[in-house]
């Protein structure tokens, strides 16, 4: 997860976007799941509208909601989650995206092994350090920021288990057998490898002040994350889709830049993490797509609300105990390094508008049409604002800041 959409708050203060987290997705599991998706849709999509109407009636008096008008989403959170799990949909469309443990990569696969003689161990570490020597500080700062965000996983798992406080939706026992509980634990298990892998690489490369990095993780976990309270059943999955894609983009860009600087090891490990994030993005994208089938008006209004809201990022509260603007500095470095930029955010909004076929939605309410127009016009607005921000940045004098993660060496902000 953990993502960087959040960075736009610093880069483009007006830009509201969802949170934090690329692959060389094998595509194998995704591909195998697609026929199931198609099959399931053909079997049940004809019922979605009717079911949506029935649920509307059933929940018409329920308190809600996500909007500041009198429109209500058709589905309340619990009904949405239960609706999505009907006919084994979560199993077919989400759990099938998780990699079985026996087939999954582990951090030990990608780092020096200690199952060899001492001399060979030293040679492998020396090779890793020699390659890492060519990685610029700005890329290291991006890597550390991404790693710290990944290490906030205990917070994110807790948040994930708060979305649907009811039997069959939360993992009440910690070993529940229903789909959502299995997804949350499976997703967490995959995410847990991301922080481990980046953390061990950074420790072995010898280029960063690990104590400062560890202090930042410690602070972040103690401080938690401030996230806009989801006020609509569709917010969490929309947020999740953006978050996972943002992380995918960020890790993939880091991989590409690491390769350009001659560190094939770093490129590979960022690439496999990106692959995980891509599969997670697919999962949440499917949830939103299925929600659109059931309640297009409610979901497009929720999408507009998420885009308009000031969304705080998972790592936004990070500090090393010295720099109160550490997250802003990390975001500015990532923008300048091209690891995650305002233009990436515009591309992402455009991607989801196209994927969810927002422009073609029919039968919307007045509020729904306004939300549709707003969302469809957003990529163009973001690009225009990004150009203006770029022009302003070009006129500024170069500015650097000392970052403790890299032993207080100065790193360019712009
Ligand atoms: Fe992820
Ligand atoms: Fe991750």
Automatic annotation (TrEMBL):
One of its GO terms (biological process) is fatty acid biosynthetic process. CDD domains: Acyl_ACP_Desat. Residues 1-18 form the signal peptide. Binds 2 iron ions per subunit. Keywords: Chloroplast, Fatty acid biosynthesis, Fatty acid metabolism, Iron, Lipid biosynthesis, Lipid metabolism, Metal-binding, Oxidoreductase, Plastid, Signal, Transit peptide. One of its GO terms (cellular component) is chloroplast. Residues 54-64 have a biased composition (Low complexity). GO terms for molecular function: metal ion binding; stearoyl-[ACP] desaturase activity. It is found in: Plastid, Chloroplast. Fe cation 1 binds at residues 150, 191, 194, 277. Pathway: Lipid metabolism; fatty acid metabolism. Pfam families: FA_desaturase_2 (PF03405). Its cofactor is Fe cation; Fe(2+). Residues 38-70 are annotated as: Disordered. InterPro entries: Fatty_acid_desaturase-2, Ferritin-like_SF, RNR-like. Fe cation 2 binds at residues 191, 244, 277, 280. Homodimer. Belongs to the fatty acid desaturase type 2 family. This is Acyl-desaturase.
């Amino acid at each position: 997860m953990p993502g960087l959409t959040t960075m736009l708050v610093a880069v483009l203060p007006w830009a509201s976007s969802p949170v934090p987290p690329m692959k060389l997705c094998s595509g194998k599991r995704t591909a195998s799941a697609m026929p199931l998706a198609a099959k399931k849709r053909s079997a049940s999509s004809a019922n979605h509208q009717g079911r949506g109407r029935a649920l509307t009636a059933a929940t018409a008096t329920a308190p809600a909601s996500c909007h500041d008008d009198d429109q209500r989403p058709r589905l309340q959170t619990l009904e949405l989650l239960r609706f999505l799990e009907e006919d084994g949909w979560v199993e077919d469309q989400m759990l099938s995206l998780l990699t079985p443990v026996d087939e999954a990569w582990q951090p030990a696969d990608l780092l020096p092994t200690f199952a060899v003689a001492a001399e060979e161990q030293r040679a492998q570490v020396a090779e890793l350090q020699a390659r890492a020597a060519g990685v610029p500080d700005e890329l290291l700062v991006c890597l550390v920021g991404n790693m710290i965000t990944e290490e906030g996983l205990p917070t994110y798992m807790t948040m994930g288990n708060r979305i649907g406080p009811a039997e069959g939706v939360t993992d009440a026992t910690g070993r529940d057998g229903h789909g959502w509980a299995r997804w949350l634990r499976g997703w967490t298990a995959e995410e847990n490898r991301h922080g481990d892998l980046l953390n061990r690489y950074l420790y072995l490369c010898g280029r960063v002040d690990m104590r400062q990095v560890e202090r930042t993780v410690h602070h972040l976990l103690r401080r938690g994350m401030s996230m806009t309270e989801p006020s609509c059943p569709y917010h969490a999955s929309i947020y999740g889709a953006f978050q996972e894609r943002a992380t995918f983009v960020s890790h993939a860009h880091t991989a590409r830049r690491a390769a350009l600087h001659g560190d094939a090891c770093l490129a590979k490990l960022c690439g496999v993490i990106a692959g995980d994030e891509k599969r997670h993005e697919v999962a949440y994208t499917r949830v939103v797509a299925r929600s659109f089938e059931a309640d297009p008006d409610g979901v497009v209004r929720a999408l507009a609300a998420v885009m308009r809201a000031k969304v705080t990022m998972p790592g936004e509260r990070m500090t090393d105990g010295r720099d109160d603007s550490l997250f802003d500095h990390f975001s500015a470095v990532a923008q300048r390094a091209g690891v995650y930029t305002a233009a990436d955010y515009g591309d992402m909004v455009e991607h989801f508008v196209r994927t969810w076929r927002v422009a073609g939605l029919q039968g919307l309410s007045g509020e729904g049409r306004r939300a549709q127009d707003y969302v469809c016009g957003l990529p163009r607005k973001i690009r225009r604002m990004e150009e203006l921000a770029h022009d302003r940045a070009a006129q500024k004098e170069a500015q650097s800041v000392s970052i403790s993660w890299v032993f207080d060496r100065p790193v360019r902000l712009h």
